[in-house]
């Protein structure tokens, strides 16, 4: 991925994302629409209604999906595989660490991959949870490294990227959350972690070591679950957008086979 083609991991508390099983069409539309703005969606719905009116019929799901797809340029073959591996990596590791449900995956945005994940609220705020979060955030990069032997800049390059968020989290583990390897009881916040890391090489080394450990751990999980990782990446490559039901079906089948 290029610096402008990011992988965005969006978190939602699991308790706040109760979805009616009967709303399969809405879930599919929501997954397909990842990366669009409210104005984009409003325009697409307006155009779909106009199309239905001209055809003297009710608006259909296919009208809206076609509008979403028509709003985007086709993703080149090799890039589509990279994004599929990247997002499948996040999803497999998120599930393996039991962080919560995977709400949806999308590589059809033309601007990189997206994943929407939920978190079990009862598991947050422990050291293990933060380390699991780091592992999940580094899993996209680990997936590219495992499958393609080369990583792209898609996990970095912006303030909301995987690397940016993982770096902030590792920084907070060392400085504000009470889990630091040096002076863990000191609360030392800073508005600009980058400036602190540039000036404090020892801290930068510790933060980077946490990121390296998370990357290695994510890679180990993906190697152990290579079959389900491949299956999910292939399904995502083909469908380009998968809702929770489709993703969890593949992950659940893997759990059964591994059990």
From TrEMBL:
Q: Which domain of life is it from?
A: Bacteria
Instruction: Please give the biological process terms from Gene Ontology that the record holds.
Output: protein catabolic process; proteolysis
For the Peptidase M41 domain, which residue ranges apply? 83-250
What is any Pfam family matched here? Peptidase_M41
Sorted alphabetically, which keywords does the UniProt record give? Hydrolase, Metal-binding, Protease, Zinc
Which parts of the sequence belong to the AAA ATPase AAA+ lid domain? 26-66
One Gene Ontology MF term: metalloendopeptidase activity
Naming one, the record's GO cellular component terms include:
plasma membrane
- In this chain, the stretch annotated as Disordered covers 1-20
Keyword check for Hydrolase: yes
Matching entries from InterPro entries are given as:
AAA_lid_3, Peptidase_M41, Peptidase_M41-like
Q: Which cofactor does it need?
A: Zn(2+)
**PANTHER family per the UniProt record, alphabetical:** ATP-DEPENDENT ZINC METALLOPROTEASE YME1L1, METALLOPROTEASE M41 FTSH
Q: What is this protein called?
A: ATP-dependent Zn protease
UniProt source species: Rhizobium grahamii
